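fwd from M.: "can u put these together and see what the complex looks like"

so here's what she sent:
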Amino acid sequence: MVMGNFTGVWGIFEYMDETTETIEQIREKGVQPTVITPCPRHEIDHALGNPTTVLPWIALFFGALGCFVGYSLPAWTASDWVLPVSGKPILAIPPYTIIGFELTVLFTTIFTLISIALLGIIDSFRFPIPKAAKKYRRFQRDRFGVVVRCDAANLEQFETIMKSNGAEEVHVEK
Amino acid sequence: MVSRQFNLLSLLISFLFITIYSSAAYAKQPIAFSHKLHTVQNGIPCQYCHLYARRSFSSGVPPVSTCIGCHGPQEMKLVKPESSEVNKMREYWSKNIPIPWVKVHDIPDFVRFPHKKHINADSDRLISDAGGGCDAENAPRSLECKLALFRTGGDERCIACHGDVRSMDGMKQVDDNFGKMGWCMECHLQVKGAKERKRTGNTWAGWFHAKEMDIEREAAIGLINDKGFHNPNTLDCLTCHY
Amino acid sequence: MKKGLSRRKLFKYMGAGGATAVIAGCEKKPEKLIPMLVPPTNYEYTPHTTYNYMTTCRECEAACGMMVTTREHRAQKAEGNPNHPINQGALCARGQASMQTLYNPSRIAHPLADGKQIPWEEGMKQFAAVMQTASGAIAYIGKPTTGSDGDFIDEWLDAAGGGRRVGFNLLNQNSLVEANRIAFGRADIPEYAFENAGIILNFGADFLESWGNTVENARRFADTHAYKDGKKNRLIHVSPHVSLTGAKADRWVMINPGTEGLAALAIASVIREEKDNYKFLKKFLESYSPEKVSEATGVSAELLRELAKDVIGHSTLLALGGGNLAATEQSVETLTAVNILNAVSGALGETVRFYDQSPSETSSHQQIVQLINDLNSGKIKLLIIDDSNPVYALPPSVELLQAMQKAFVVSIVSQKSETSHAANLVLPALTAYESWGDAFPRSGVRSIQQPVMTAVKGFDAKAREDILLEAVQQVNNKAFSGISSYFDYLQNKWRKVQSEVGDTGNFDNFWIKVLENGGIFQKPEYAHVSLNRKVTSVQVNDPGMTAKDGLTLIPTASIFHGDGSGANKPWLQEVPNPMSQIVWDSWVEINPDTAQKMGINDRAIVEVSTPHGSVQATAYYHFGIHRDAIAIPLGQGHQHSGDVADGFGINVMDLLPNNLDGTGSLTLVGTQAQLKMVNDKSFTVNTDGNARQLGRNIAAATTVEELAKGGDHHGKHARPSEFYPDRSETAGYYKPYRWGMTIDLDRCNGCSACVVACYAENNLPVVGKMRTAIGREMSWIRLERYIEGMGDDHETRFTPMLCQQCGNAGCETVCPVYATYHNPEGLNAMVYNRCVGTRYCSNNCAYKVRRFNWFDYEFPSPLDQQLNSTITTREVGVMEKCTFCVQRINTAKHDANNLGRDLEDGEVKTACQQTCPTNAITFGNLMDPESKVAKQALRNNQENRDRQYEVLAELNYKPAITYLKKVNTREIDGHGSEKHESHETETSHG
Amino acid sequence: MGTASGYDPTAGKVIIDEHIGHPGIKATTLGYGEINDEMLAMLDKPHPSYYLLLLGFIMALGLGALSFAIQVDVGIGYSGISHPIAWGFYITNFVFWIGIGHAGTLISAVFYLTRAPWRTAIYRSAEAMTVFAVFTAGLFPLIHIGRPWLAFWLIPYPNERMLWVNFKSPLLWDVFAVTTYMSVSIMFFLLGLIPDIAILRDEAIRKGKKLKALVYAPLALAWRGTNHQWVHYMRGYLIFAAFATPLVFSVHSIVSWDFAMSSVPGWHTTIFAPYFVAGAIFSGLAMVLTVLIPIRAVFGLQDYITNHVIQSVSRVIIFTSIIVGYAYATEFFIGYYSGSPYERAIFYYRPFGEMQSWTLLGDNQLNFPQIAFWLMVFCNVIAPIPLWRWKVRNNPLAVWIIAALINVGMWFERFNIIGSSLQHEYDPASWGEYWPTIVETGVTIGSFGFFFTLFTIFVKSLPPMAIMELKEGTKPPMKNNVKKDGDG
């Protein structure tokens, strides 16, 4: 799908209760809208049907990887060139636990951050937003936006829903 | 536009290249002394001039009297009486000034490198086979080749580290990382028992009492040699750094 | 100093800026390879190889044999000549520091006329001209000599038209010689056979510091005094002052200054009564019975009788006296009294043995006094002074300096000094290590002094004798015919020696043998002597010093500086005095009781004044001094002896009068001084953080009784079983070596020779007073001095503390970069070039033996030429420490490897072990059960197991150094200071 | 609107109106746009006095840089660190700044998980403080070591020397702990900033400020605020919080093991980890108050950083103060109870100095560690006691004075631990003293300059409060106020 060819309706709302109402009505039509909000609200999540994310699994995987590296790197380096210190065992587990812990946290957080960015990019392809909506500069401030991607046939239907729920502006993209 | 940027880039790269690899060039010496001429054509062995190599830490730069021993003062018309380069040497000799040779093979001051230990080392007893033969054609400076040279002994042993001086007109460093720790370690790891000492010394000693296992291994890895005395430990830091 | 931004600095700034990236432009400036023009042909020479030359140490008059290690034709380290019968391979701190005589930055580099540099020709011309005019009116002041140079100078004076030679030595033994003449008819110094003594009564002779040959004394004393076979012979120190020697004593009997003779006679009288011998002394000695002298000496009659009983019960007695403490007005009488005691107790021929011939040369202060008179009256026109420094070492009240202005003074010296400063003409002489000479210190010992290197670069000097020879031959062409240098003269002398020792071979062969051996050594012959009946005419009086107003001033001879000649050597200034632990300074030892009565704090600045002068110095609380006395060490307070010596401390001589004793020697003890506190804080630097060990058993001691009980010896306890297996079970570990050391604290007497040896061997920088003040001294081995007990009943303990090469070291595990780790030979390796300088290892070292390079330390030229080229000299930001002289281990292993064998016991000696006069330090391979160190250190050793302990063993660092406890013959009363019961700790069990 | 919460003198108690947003935080009654504008107003062109202040901090920083340059040039010996006190001011500063760096992550992660809503107004600043404090702390190991140009050897990277680092060394744990903590703090900080930077971007474009927009646009990472982004973001934030929480506790534990893993008397105790963590939180929160109370006054943020917020932080400070005081007492008890002469000696030395019997005779002088000890006890245990009273807690000036004192006290606590123990270790002959030189003092001042320079720049360049979270905490705009009717 190409970004330029967006077909659908998007509306700007001032009030959250109107937004949630709109979302629920759109979903009743079997279409999942994309909602733009200045801050996350549980009401909107509920209206959207509590969507989930794959992020925790990514974090778990890289956390485990970090833990493994955290133990194996010290163990391998220590046995690569055996230099005894203070009569301690060459493979000393307690000190390596610290490295294991630190790398678990480091790997998890780094890859979580990267994943947030990547998943965001992927989602922007999966659920595109019309260019005009991107240029509307009040979503980050105090306005709610609802974007519905649909066939040309359904445009009117969604435009009506938005307007009826008190949208400030409704734009139809063909 | 593009081509200019490309030119700039290639200039930068070549500059870096030259700076990095300039060490491989022949060092500018006060006299254009040719090792090739002396060793190959005249058959002088290394230790004829570098006479302290087997006796001392330093191999010794030949005293000017060694040169004059063959070349002689000009009026004696011994070897090459008219050569301008040799005359430079004669001038130093007559002025009683030692020749300020430029040091090519330099190791840091915190490393103790005894030439005598390396020249006198019994290679058969000490050095294990690196496995794989020496491909002298394509990879003359590979580890296998260096070890082979070392095991040959004589002048070849010098070549193992200093490169094929016999083919050099001047003097240059053949291995770019000559004198770096990893470069030394490459061969030091080939000494019998060294790898075992380094890697598996006793990794599990902290958790299992591994006495019998270790004593067996000790004999197996050749810490004690056929003469019944202990092979030198080439891996201990204090072997070179003290 | 380099100007501008050097490469290293650039790197530093870059590193600081975080730009540690590898840059392509960081190529090194190529180093130059400078070959020799002509290699030495007359002998084999190999670079980077050690050559040893035998010579004779000339730091004091004792003439110990010396073996100087040279590399690249530069002398680098002085060690004792193992063949030499006097020192047997050991050297004292001053001998170790002889390399700094050689490379001293304050050496005189050019001839000087009135302080201005002149060429040699002109200097010699001036010298010859003055000689010609002064013919017959020449005087020569020199160190007393036992060798051929004395004869040479006498002959020289004859050739120059006549003159006189005056030996100058402040701490001479003339009184002892005179006392021996009176008592035994022998004007000589006998051999003191410590090893035959059952008990030693020491009347103030500092025989471990300044009296006689201290190296030999220390060895022989340790042989008798150290605990062996369940017993230990005792040393009783009868003196007003506890010196280093007194600190080693089993008992200190505090006696009024100057009354040692009375005490000796009192003891002698009791012994004589018991033994009923020497009847002719009966009446004489009865007048000195304990009861009669008790008041004068301040020692109770019971105690004197008890001492006498001890002597009888533990024969044979060795009674010693002399040195600086005996230098009172009646020093001869005092020493005669000691001689009587020796004779009465039967020591003659047993512990006190006279040689068959007496080579010693007498020099007395009277000659100096005479000389000064002659100078003043104009009878002397030319005065030649060698390396002795009378202007400094004599009290100003002698007025030598003023007299010297009356004559032309030529100083033929190697080192700057107050005397050379006052000279009209200074001709730089070579040091003893660059020139020929010899010494015959006693019967059977003929020691050669050969140059170990050519003159140090940059010093345009000639041998002293050669200067004289050249000058006299300019004046008198008949003088010394056929002799072109002193070397010829010396060889002629040794031709005679050859015939004396009965060698009939070729002289050249003999000469080579002498040079190889360091001299010709024969067993001494002894003569029988007996007590002269005329000794009864000697009158020993009560000097009554304590009764006088003020405190009796006792100048003490410093173990490092002697009469001041050691003060210009950085090592000797830097190494703390073993008793006071003070560096770069003088101090006034005062009894705390007296001080508190006078309101003087410890480390306060006090003004000490006598009728002859006054000085300001730091008060130092010392239990071991008489309550009516103060002690000030000699040797500091120079003004013109170079940067190292000038301005540090004070010269006690400024306080003394020009008083002479019976032999004409200067009296040192007897002046009364007044004390006044000037400032209650001073900038005196001592290296000990605390004089008390707080029950921590770092310097542990036991008693003979304790050891006799046995039973609960610590050796019985096996080492605690370990959670982790021993390293010796690791492949390649401790095979075949596990280096270890034992230090016998019963033998150690704190002489600090080991400390100086370590400085010399390991390129330790000297940091100076200011940096030592904040703990920056770089010494890898320090001699810890701990004081136990309080007041008169105190004990001083010494512990050499060096890296313990722990098996479970604290330092290793905390290093983030493996710069220190446990080496397969049991060494606690320190890889300097890997160190980044976090200094955690130093924090975690319980023994605090790691030293950090806070700066790139400078070795001012020519001291840098002494640097040992077999080890790395460390750069700024790097931790360093002792590694049991790993360079010596590695060198020995290279050689052994080439010979196809493992190292043998005793093949490697650490620098500290090598120089230890008492053999307190043993080093070797712990894995070899036959090695000497294993025998001492292993727990199953029957002889030593009761004395073995590890310092701070409860930390389980498993040090490789085992100490053997000091053995006391008495209990020190209750660790006086540790009333606070929390400081009591269990004796550590190994 | 009326007071959201407050002390009612007639009732004699605090009245909290449960119906208005979050009790006690007035900002929770504001609208989205209102919050947005007020926050963005903070980033307006600053008053000239701001530049004066910044200049002052930069000059302090310059002093530190100069001192360090001198030290590198002359040698580390130019500082007063010596033998046996091989660690001095630098490690003290390191531990101190790491401690300061604990407040931010604690507030943003721990209080996020425990849903303490009063964190909203202060967490951004606290997080910025964390990042800057860890930056500052991270400099100190470099300043401290003997050869800083080789500091990269502490990083395990494959090299031609075939050498690795010693993972058994507590210092290496430190390297890992501090770099991880620094990375996580920075990432957490940036993560929280993403929606706010998107706001800044959009506002800049709206107001036609193209240059600003150009700067903010890449930093906003194409943030649109779609529900998909919000889902990932909120879950990611939760994961960050979940992992940052143990990290907060681990970092200072690991720093404490620098000491506790050694055998130095006074260091070698198991109590160190919790003791250090409590101390870190204590000092971190005190620093938060020290910095935010003046900011609140300058920017007039009483609606956001209300007295309630200050009170809440003060309560945590009281709590940690008790823990720290208890730890001090425990140290002494263990020192006594262990029976170890070394421990007893050091715990006698800290408060009272040289024991009479330690020296030959007397000379009982007060030394730097004793000053440090008593300052520490006064500032950390005694000074916070007035905070128990509500009236004191409600007085920002009083709280600020106490918080500043705590900062001083916590610095001296670290010095007390480091400086005194090293002076009196096992071997009395090697006991020593420590006095800093001008270099260390300069670098210490410079570290404060560095921290405050960064913080001052931050205050004016990024929103010092999380606008997005403020909006989240406030009442959403509703056309039909059916469910909530809080406009009292």
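replying to her w this: Chain D touches chain B at residues 159-163 (CB under 8 Å).
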